[in-house]
């Protein structure tokens, strides 16, 4: 498995899509894609998932998120190299998580907020807007959990 290719692809897609949104949309602009289900909505989220800590003073919020991201990235890199070479799914998952974390870290360093634009909803119920970095992180975490469950089941058999 070429983990560098996975990393560069995930990070590159995140950076390119965020740039396209910033260049072609106004902040808070919404473009319906699939009415009743999916919009592009340009948001800059200064907080964490679901806007957590968004009301924190900007300096402390940035310091917290940048520090937390750096610590998490160090942990992810250590975990990647602790995986044996045959743990392809774990290494791929950690690579996706790392790419997503770096994509959002770049936004925080550049803007003090994360560019979000994927707006999924059903009728009047909207999931908080997110981006491809968040998607890479979520898919990576999902793969890790799936691998853990499957390995636990195999060990029990």
Major beta sheet, strand line-up? 1-2-3-4
Shape: globular
Q: What's the Cα radius of gyration?
A: 17 Å
Unreliable segments of 5+ consecutive residues: none
What proportion strand? 15-25%
- Distance between the first and last residues' Cα: 28 Å
Please give the share of residues in helix: 55-70%
Number of E strands: 4
The number of helical runs is 4
The topology string of helices and strands comes to HEEHHEEH
Structural class: alpha+beta
Domains, number: 1
Largest sheet: 4 strands, antiparallel
Rounded average pLDDT: 92
Q: If you had to describe this structure to a student in words, what would you say it looks like?
A:
The chain is 61% helix and 15% strand. The chain is α+β, with helices and mostly antiparallel strands. The protein has one domain. It has a 4-stranded antiparallel sheet. Strand 1 (30-34) and strand 2 form a beta hairpin. The longest helix is centred in the middle third of the chain and has 25 residues, at 58-82. It starts with a helix and ends with a helix.
List keywords for this structure.
alpha+beta; 157 residues; 4 helices; 4 strands
Short summary of the structure?
This protein is α+β, with helices and mostly antiparallel strands and 157 residues long. The protein has four helices and four strands, in the order αββααββα. It has one domain.
How are the elements arranged and paired?
Elements (H helix, E strand, L loop, with lengths): L2 H22 L5 E5 L3 E8 L12 H25 L5 H24 L2 E9 L2 E2 L5 H25 L1
Antiparallel strand pairs: 1-2, 2-3, 3-4
């Amino acid at each position: 498995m070429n983990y560098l290719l996975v990393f560069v692809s995930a990070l590159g897609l995140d950076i390119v899509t965020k740039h396209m949104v910033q260049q072609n949309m106004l902040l808070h602009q919404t473009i319906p894609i699939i009415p009743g289900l999916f919009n592009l909505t340009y948001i800059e989220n200064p907080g964490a998932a679901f806007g957590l800590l968004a009301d924190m003073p900007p300096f402390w919020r940035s310091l917290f998120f940048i520090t937390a991201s750096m610590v998490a990235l160090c942990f992810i890199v250590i975990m990647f190299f602790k995986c044996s070479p045959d743990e392809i799914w774990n290494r791929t998952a950690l690579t996706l998580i790392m790419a997503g974390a770096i994509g959002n870290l770049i936004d925080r360093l550049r803007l003090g907020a994360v560019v979000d634009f994927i707006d999924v909803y059903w009728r009047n119920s909207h999931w908080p807007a997110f981006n491809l970095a968040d998607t890479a992180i979520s898919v990576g975490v999902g793969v890790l959990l799936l691998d853990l469950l499957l390995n636990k089941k195999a060990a029990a058999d």
